[in-house]
Amino acid sequence: MPFYIIANWKMNEGKPSAEGYIRMLNSRLKDMPRSRTIIICPPFTHLSRVSRLIRNTRIKLGAQDVSSEHKGAFTGDVPASFVSAEGALFVIVGHSERRRFHGETESIVRMKLIEVLSHKMTPILCIGETKSERSRGLTKKVLKKQLSGTLRGVKLSKKRIIIAYEPVWAISTSKNARHLTSEEISEMLKEVRSLALSHISGKPSELSVIYGGSVDYALSKKMRNARDVNGFLVGGASLDPKKFISIAGA
Ligand code: PGA
Predict the structure, then answer these.
(1) 3-248 has which CATH code?
(2) Is the dihedral of CA 4, 157, 229, 65 positive or negative?
(3) Segment 198-239, tens digit of pLDDT
(4) Cα gap 93→147, rounded to integer Å
(5) CB of 115 closer than 8 Å to CB of 92
(6) Would the CB of 212 count as within 6 Å of ligand 1?
(7) How much is the pTM?
(8) Is 166 a catalytic residue?
């Protein structure tokens, strides 16, 4: 079973440059077990460059989003076919920043997921509750709604999707913010796995469920052998290759 370490560069470039970043990361991969699957998700404009840079390495390419549409008059959108042609094997869909800043609903996320699957890429489906939903005790209800809204009726095997639980309130936070403990994260991922299983067929152990939200070296080290955790989606800390390598190698 792969253990995913996914870099979400968001609207940034790896530091000091994509070239230097990939070179440094690649040189450290030899020391990491083969099961560690490293995926870099740069902005659309950097896909082809990063694709070239990772050729002949173990690093895989992912995109941060795709259009919910196939092709046509959708100014600014990038379809799954173009992203796949650049060499992407994975695509993040339903990230909370897309839901929040671009008004993406469950049905849009579902259309994107279908586009990704139909181009033989693996969706990284993000779900998670906001702070206010959590404080009102709605976490489970929200996760259930997000999963059923996006997975309903989609023909899917467990090996074809990664589910990323990212509590919205834990994303891009400072070190001092109160986060979930490693035990709480394990519990949540267990819950997410069981909620997702009502929509996907196959053995439960084949479904990849990962965590995201201010992931750093300390958390990844603590959770290294935790059950029910199949990897991490890393935002801020993935911009610095040294920090990202330390998380990947923890
Ligand atoms: P963060 O971002 O690690 O900066 O919290 C994670 C994400 O949004 O995917």
Answers:
(1) 3.20.20.70
(2) positive
(3) 888 777 788 999 999 999 999 999 988 888 899 999 999 999
(4) 12
(5) no
(6) yes
(7) 0.96
(8) yes
Residue type, 34: R
* Residue 233 CB less than 6 A away from ligand 1: yes
Q: Are 168 and 132 in contact (CB under 8 A)?
A: no
Active site residue 129: no
Q: Ligand 1 test: best mutation among 100, 172, 217, most atoms within 8 Å of CB?
A: 172
Please give the full DSSP string across 69-86, using - where no structure is assigned: SSSSS-TT---HHHHHHT
Q: What are the tokens at 46?
A: 């950097």
Q: Following CA atoms 162, 244, 178, 166 in sequence, which dihedral angle do they give, to the nearest 10 degrees?
A: -20
Query: For atom 7 of ligand 1, which residue has the closest CA?
Result: 235
Listed by start position, the domains of the chain span: 3-248
Verify whether ligand 1 is closer than 6 Å to residue 167 (CB atom): no
The C-alpha atoms of residue 209 and residue 29 are separated, in whole angstroms, by 23
Centre of ligand 1 from the C-alpha of residue 99, in Å: 14
